Amino acid sequence: MNASGAEPLTARPAAGTPRHPSHRADVHRGPVGSELAGTLMIARHILRRDRVRLCVWAIALTAFVLYFSVALRTVFDPEALAARAAVMRTPSGIVMGGPGYGLDHYTPMVAVANEGITWIVAALGIMSLLHVVRHTRAEEDAGRAELMGAGAVGRHAPALATLLVLTAQLLVITVLGALATLAGGDDASFLDGLGMMGGSTLAALVIGAVALLASEVAATSRTATGLALAGLALLFAVRAAGDLIHREGSLLSWFSPFAWPQQMRPFVDLRWWPALLSVAAVLVLLAVAAGLSRRRDLGRGLVADRAGRSQATSWLRSPLALAWRQQRGMLLWSCLGLGLLWLATGTMMSTLADMGRDLVSQTPALAGMLGSDSSAFTGQFLDLILLFAALCAAAYGIVASGQHCRAEETSGRLEAVLAAPVSRRRWLTAQLLVALTGTAVLLVVSVAALAAGALAVGVDDPDVGRYGAALLAHLPATLVFAALSAALFAWVPRGGGLAWMLIAVVFGIAMFGEMLDLPDWVQGISPFHWVPDSFTEDTDPAGPLMLLAVDAVLSALALVGIGRRAIDGGL
């Protein structure tokens, strides 16, 4: 103590003197100025924040592999498997499955690999891109990244932590999925299952890296999600076109990560080296993303938003205008990506008749399924393609309605909007209206692109009117997903992922419902069960009209629910 009785001030340490290890910067940063400081701390936070979401994805993907393996082993005899192999030689089988290795000896696990890898990669890819955008670009939009960066956190730490958690999640899914393949019977092998799931998860990690790149380029999380979804659709189209050029994959196929796990040939002739392509692609994309990150300001995209007018028009004051401005970027990029995908798919129609004629004449099992009419291939192919186009639009609807609204709520922006003379129901009505309209527009663009591709190569059967009728029949079922997502947001805000579960259920019912002879009440869970096959059956308006009523009820429930709960400004 000094003469006045006061405690002496602590002297500032001399330059170069190490500070006490309990200092926060020393604990988390390591070397001063490290761009990766705080990575593990952020990773722990992401794990705690998303623990339920990550578990649901892991359980759902494992259950899909387990169900698929058991079903093909117990339900299908060798003759039925031979018929499935014949279908995998058709254009629709190649597009929706893959190049088709082991078709001459089609065992249950060969069928799992041939028919399941594409959809495992697609599901994991969607999971990966949503995860990456949620914890990178969306954090910057909400302002939390700036607060975090004010502490002892390096510039690249959030992105690296996001990818570390994603990698750990994919590793867990790899092991669980490989164990699930052991239920496939005598031809099951843990090593082959590990190859199938490992190749698929590495391909999904590539898509996650693409989403990270999109998050650096885009100015908002919605635009980044749209860019990433467009990239996913483009990569799928490249793989499909390449496999159609040559049944076991052409040079074009190798430019898509969808093809790399298929080229590992699990359960046929397992080889590991194609997995190195995924590793190399991830490293290259991460290096590019890191370089772009250094060239932009926090909270800004590499492609900046255009400067607005000096004076806004009066209509921009409404919640509807706000919803449109928030969602237009994602809608634009989704339309572009899916439009190109289905345009390329439509150009494949010119080869269907000749291929169908050859396959029917050469494959008795296929002739028994379709008869001698090779034109049946065209109708069945279009019905299947239209279903997947509708599912893609439905996935957009889930993101644009409930998930977008939840992001606005947790970021605190919703509270700021409601502080103005805007009611909750008016705000949600605007968001839902834009989401439903965007879903409809995306489906219109998809069907129009499919028809345009077919007409471009001289295919005029079915005619344009048939495409229009198919669009109207599928639209109400597609809108169910956006309306359900909004209702879940209003009543169970933390249960928005249930809408994605419906996507998985619909896919399983569409692919295996009739083959497994599921009861009608189970198949009726899928909204598309009530939609007739527009290119092979006469259109019955009863199902679509009933689904319109379902859309109205779910939308009304959403508007009722948002007024009955508290607005959560936190996570």
Automatic annotation (TrEMBL):
Protein name, entry field: Polyketide antibiotic transporter
Gene Ontology cellular component terms for the protein in this record: plasma membrane
Keyword vocabulary terms for this entry: Membrane, Transmembrane, Transmembrane helix
Region (Disordered): 1-31
Keyword Lyase assigned: no
Transmembrane domains' residue ranges: 54-72, 116-136, 157-182, 194-214, 226-245, 272-292, 330-353, 381-399, 432-457, 469-491, 498-516, 542-562
GO MF annotation: an example: ABC-type transporter activity
